[in-house]
Write a structure and sequence with these properties.
The protein has about 120 residues and is an all-beta fold. It is about 0% helix and about 55% strand. The protein contains no helices and eleven strands. Strands 2, 4, 5, 6, 9, 10 and 11 form a seven-stranded mixed sheet that branches. Strands 1-3-8-7 form a four-stranded antiparallel sheet, with no helix packed on it. Strand 5 and strand 6 form a beta hairpin. The relative contact order is 0.33.
């Protein structure tokens, strides 16, 4: 079982980044894929989620209209969720984690928005 994120980095305010998460090694289709983020001293918060069967999405109010989550799950035991982040703000700076039901976390990827 693997949950692997990629795509973090440093970007200027107003810029864009794309994060990808690939989950593999177990039957992923019944579940959702989720992006969380965390800054030091604060709780991890849900940013966006997508169900793998219907593609139903959900976003935190703070990212609505700026972030878009999509999926690719053409195989039973492999799925990818992509988080397109536009109009980034300094307050989006955090470590972003992918979470896949029934309870698997990725290692996290740093996103820094700074001039």
């Amino acid at each position: 079982i693997q949950v692997v994120e990629s795509g973090g980095g440093l970007v200027q305010p107003g810029g864009s980044l794309t994060l990808s998460c690939t989950a593999s090694g177990f039957p992923v289709r019944p579940y959702s894929m989720n992006w969380y983020r965390q800054v030091p001293g604060k709780e991890r918060e849900l940013v966006a989620s997508i169900t793998l069967i219907r593609g139903t999405t959900n976003y935190a109010d703070s990212v609505k209209g700026r972030f878009t989550i999509t999926k690719d799950n053409g195989y039973t035991k492999v799925a990818t969720a992509t988080l397109q982040m536009n109009s980034l703000k300094p307050e989006d700076t955090a470590v972003y984690y992918c979470f896949v039901g029934p309870g698997y976390w990725g290692q996290g990827t740093q996103v820094t928005v700074s001039s």
